[in-house]
Design a protein that fits this description.
By secondary structure, the chain is of the alpha+beta class. It is built from two helices and seven strands, in the order αβββββββα.
Length: 142
């Protein structure tokens, strides 16, 4: 009977220690405390503004090239051909015409760039004027 009393007493002491939160005894269970890990803050980039212009057309008349842009809002936009600025700019909102005169015969890059950073490229070909052969009557040739 002593053994049963001793076993019941030991069990009661173990339960009392577990309920009291005493973790110094041999039945101690380590307490795991989670540590907060810092998540690095990544800055969210601001969205780029919407492009406020579109190519309307590029026309060639001899050595004169006109680049027409359709503009939706007032924005600073520029056009170059071979890195050269236009001779004049004709504003007839919503169209802006960039006029280049004396463009040599060849294919040339066209670059449109606005103040916000939108950029588009195209190319234009200026062809040589057609040669005209004149046939003279034989009586004028003499």
């Amino acid at each position: 009977m002593n053994r049963v009393i001793f076993a019941v007493a030991g069990l009661a002491i173990a339960l009392a220690m577990a309920r009291s939160g005493d973790t110094s005894g041999p039945t101690a269970v380590p307490t795991i405390v989670p540590t907060a890990t810092a998540v690095p803050q990544v800055p969210t980039p601001s969205p780029m503004p919407v492009q406020e212009w579109n190519f309307e057309k590029i026309s060639v008349d001899g050595s004169t090239v006109t680049v027409s842009l359709h503009v939706f809002a007032g924005i600073d936009v520029g056009v170059t051909i071979n890195g050269k600025e236009p001779i004049r700019v004709e504003t007839a909102i919503p169209l802006i015409n960039f006029v280049f005169e004396g463009v040599p015969t060849d294919e040339h890059p066209v670059v449109v760039l606005d103040a916000v950073g939108h950029k588009e490229t195209a190319s234009v070909t200026v062809e040589a004027p057609p040669s005209v052969d004149i046939v003279l009557p034989t009586w004028l040739a003499d």
